[in-house]
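forwarding from the other thread:

> can someone predict this with nicotinamide-adenine-dinucleotide?

sure thing
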Amino acid sequence: MGSNQVCFVTGGAGFIGSHLCEALLRGGREVVTLDNFDPFYDPAIKHRNLQAIEAAMQNEGIEPSRFRWVEGDIRDRELLESIFTGLKEAGKQITIIHIAAKAGVRPSIDNAPLYTEVNIVGTQNIFEMAKSFDVKKVIYASSSSVYGENKKVPFSEEDLVDYPISPYAMTKKANELLAHTYHHLYGIDMVGLRFFTVYGPRQRPDLAISKFTRMVDHGETIPFYGDGSTRRDYTYIDDIIEGVLAALRYIEKESSVYEILNLGESQTTTLQELVAHIESAVGKKAIIDMLPMQPGDVPQTYADISKARRLIGYDPKTLIEAGIAKYVEWYRAQEYGY
Ligand SMILES: NC(=O)c1ccc[n+]([C@@H]2O[C@H](COP(=O)([O-])OP(=O)(O)OC[C@H]3O[C@@H](n4cnc5c(N)ncnc54)[C@H](O)[C@@H]3O)[C@@H](O)[C@H]2O)c1
């Protein structure tokens, strides 16, 4: 990679962002990341994610100066301007990969205005930086939640996504609208990636697989929302990262790009099956407390990934049993309670 190129990644201390930074560095790139260590879950976990990146760099002989992290908020325009000014003065050609967000469907119902502030205004700030600092390539994280209660499966990028059922989903759809506006007006190439429930090492502690693994392991009762028949397309982190890297190669090669792509595994697992996989990987039985479905939860997600296959060569490979086994192996290797 030419030394004048840099990837500006937001949310690089989080679950997906930290794996992405690591993969970019491994691929020879220079990375600057901005993360505010949002207290949505323990910021100590995010510091450990950054330490893991630094340890991998050291092990693999990656020049430390190729990675820099800044603690700060995407809502802070002044800070963003100073970072982008610095990169421009250093003669860098910047590509943005915008991953930071307030994640989580259920907490978004409790604090919708905050989700709007971070996920919509914060995203617009990032797009404004692209406009002001002549950044021509932007990739950003969207979500399968934009499909809401879509009945038709698998979900295709062609489907209408005008009916979100949570504030979180609404903000992700709004990001796609913002992206189109900035693409149309300022010629910024934009790829939005609709991630389908991502899991694997460093997974957010609020998500089902990490929560259930911990609870089954500790013999705690699992709150089980619904009758266990809800289905998710669970996507292993390595497949997601391959997808983001493929999108990056694509956006760098092409011009006049405005695309939205599903990144899923394109296989679905019921909640009941998920628990069975976790039980077998952990080697213990789950104790389950059946509760009613939660508002905001969608009954199913299932990605049609033919567009991503065709356009960027996306080719996910991890079956759920294998992915859960890898997750549990990682969970066991942690010395701190994730
Ligand atoms: N994990 C999934 O299953 C999934 C599914 C669909 C979409 N996504 C999207 O992928 C992205 C990453 O999700 P994740 O699971 O890694 O979540 P995460 O919470 O682990 O990562 C998000 C990171 O963004 C940072 N952040 C939050 N607010 C910020 C702010 N105001 N300024 C700067 N940084 C801020 C957080 O501190 C965190 O490190 C998000 O955009 C999320 O909406 C995730």
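The two ends are 35 Å apart (CA to CA). thats all i got for now
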